[in-house]
Design brief:
GO molecular function, one term: polygalacturonase activity
Number of domains: 2
Strand content: 35-45%
Radius of gyration: 27 Å
CATH class of the largest domain: Mainly Beta
Keywords: Cell wall, Cell wall biogenesis/degradation, Glycosidase, Hydrolase, Secreted, Signal
Organism: Vigna angularis var. angularis
Protein name: Polygalacturonase
InterPro entries: Glyco_hydro_28, PbH1, Pectin_lyas_fold, Pectin_lyase_fold/virulence
CATH architecture of the largest domain: 3 Solenoid
Number of helices: 5
């Protein structure tokens, strides 16, 4: 009789222990709101300076991931993406987890927050726009690997194919780490619309959108440091409408024949510093578009690729203003071009105050080139207007050039000639053989302050009459 009261009590305790864990698991999977992503607009690939976006992105609804407190360290302001459900197996879609991590860190009251992509793991993210403004500084520390879906066929049909990861309206943001951003661009490069990918080496018509890997838009006080990024479908980095950008010690690589894989492209962006970096790709290592000023590029190793370019500018009769650009203490090797300024006929505006200083060339096809007749087809007609190119300085540029092209090429507009070109301590020798080709000049005005190799005797002295009459757009 004494044991008859014990048995019901034991059974009650047993069922209670089954019930309590189920309540804890239910609370553990609580869903969270993603305010800073879902209000983000889709951004067009080539905006006007400081123009707002037009339409919201279309997104497939995804379930919110769970939050794992084992990876959360709010006392140190560290937000590990695994705490928000991200699985770094290189297969599972981690987009929603990264959105949640971004939203949480962005709204944190801490002065500086770090979103961590941990080492040794690979995360797949679909096209996404991460928006600000955020409260305080924000760091995305990539020590692992980030990857997009693998090629056009794997890209979600309701997301933009023009961009992958976009950072929009952010002030005080750093993208850094020891990890890798793998653009997985191979299948994009093989689209028939890409140069020489069609039948018999032609280019076929058809949809050709390919995503820029990393894009910063209308943001300021940005830093990109220490990362490796490879094989973007198109540009690796693009800065549009940004201010105060510092790129330091990054490594960008893509095959020499990968189309349109510029390393860093800037447009309508000022106060830019690009230092101590290595870029090898299938297009320009750095391309500087319209609306840029106060750009300093130092200690860069560029090539194989297409060199460091200002332009192309003035396409579709547009106006372009570029000024105060410096490229110094750098190496350009095995490239189609060295330091280049390229403009379309029919444009307007100006390029001025450009300094190329202390640059070593290794087997470069066109070490020094100004091309005001830039054209991607054979049917570009002559036009009287042009972007005005003036006050360009080339100092201490030495090395070797590909013997198929002249080492210096100044092809300037008949109606808007280049002016105030200055050469000093330029020594360019053929990479093979002993024949030194003469420089080429057309409507180019300037001087050689020292003897050059080869001698530049084709520059015209003084100023042309059209420039003297101020009949040009000086910006």
């Amino acid at each position: 009789m004494r044991h008859s009261h014990i048995l019901p009590l034991a059974l009650s305790l047993y069922f209670l222990t089954l019930f309590l864990p189920s309540q804890a698991r239910y609370h553990y999977h609580k869903k969270h709101k993603h305010s800073n992503y879902h209000n983000a607009p889709e951004i067009s690939p080539s905006p006007s300076p400081f123009s707002g976006p037009s339409s919201p992105p279309d997104e497939a609804p995804c379930p919110s991931p769970s939050v794992d407190d084992n990876y959360r360290n709010t006392s140190n302001n560290l937000f590990d993406v695994r705490a928000f459900g991200a699985i770094g197996d290189g297969v599972t879609d981690a987009t929603e987890s990264f959105k949640m991590a971004w939203d949480t860190a962005c709204q944190s009251e801490s002065a500086v927050k770090v979103i961590l992509v941990p080492q040794g793991l690979s995360f797949v993210i679909q096209s996404a726009i991460f928006t600000g403004p955020c409260k305080g500084g924000l760091v995305l520390k990539v020590d692992g690997t980030l990857m997009p879906p693998d090629g056009p066929d794997s890209w979600p049909k309701n997301t933009s194919k023009r961009q992958w990861l976009v950072f929009y309206r952010i002030n005080g943001f750093s993208l850094e780490g020891s990890g890798l951003i793998d653009g997985r661009g191979e299948k994009w490069w093989d689209l028939p619309c890409k140069p020489h990918k069609g039948p018999h080496g032609t280019t076929s018509p058809g949809p050709c959108d390919s995503p820029v890997a990393i894009r910063f838009f209308m943001s300021s006080n940005l830093s990109v440091q220490g990362l490796k990024i490879k094989n973007s479908p198109q540009f690796h980095f693009r800065f549009d409408g940004c201010e105060s950008v510092h790129v330091e010690s990054i490594y960008i690589t893509a095959p020499a024949l990968s189309p349109n894989t510029d390393g860093i492209h800037i447009e309508n962006t000022n106060d830019v510093k690009i230092y101590n970096s290595v870029i090898s790709n299938g297009d320009d290592c750095v391309s500087i578009g319209a609306g840029c000023h106060d750009v300093d590029i130092k200690n860069m190793t560029c090539g194989p690729g297409h060199g460091i370019s200002i332009g192309s500018l003035g396409n579709h009769n547009s106006r372009a203003c570029v000024s105060n650009i410096t490229v110094r203490d750098s190496v350009i090797k095995v490239s189609d071009n060295g330091v280049r300024i390229k403009t379309w006929q029919g444009g307007s505006g100006s390029v001025s105050g450009v300094t190329f200083n202390n640059i070593h060339m290794e087997s470069v096809r066109n070490p020094i080139i100004i091309d005001q007749f830039y054209c991607l087809s054979k049917d570009c007609s002559n036009k009287t207007s042009a972007v005005f190119v003036s006050n360009i300085s080339y100092t201490n540029i030495k090395g070797t050039y590909d013997i198929r092209h002249p080492p210096m090429h100044f092809a300037c507009s008949d109606s808007v000639p280049c002016t105030n070109l200055t050469l000093s301590d330029v020594e360019l020798l053929p990479a093979e053989g002993d024949i030194v080709l003469d420089p080429y000049c057309w409507s180019a005005y300037g001087i050689s302050e020292t003897l050059t190799i080869p001698p530049v005797s084709c520059l015209l002295e003084g100023l042309p009459q059209s420039i003297s009459g101020n009949d040009v757009d000086h910006c």
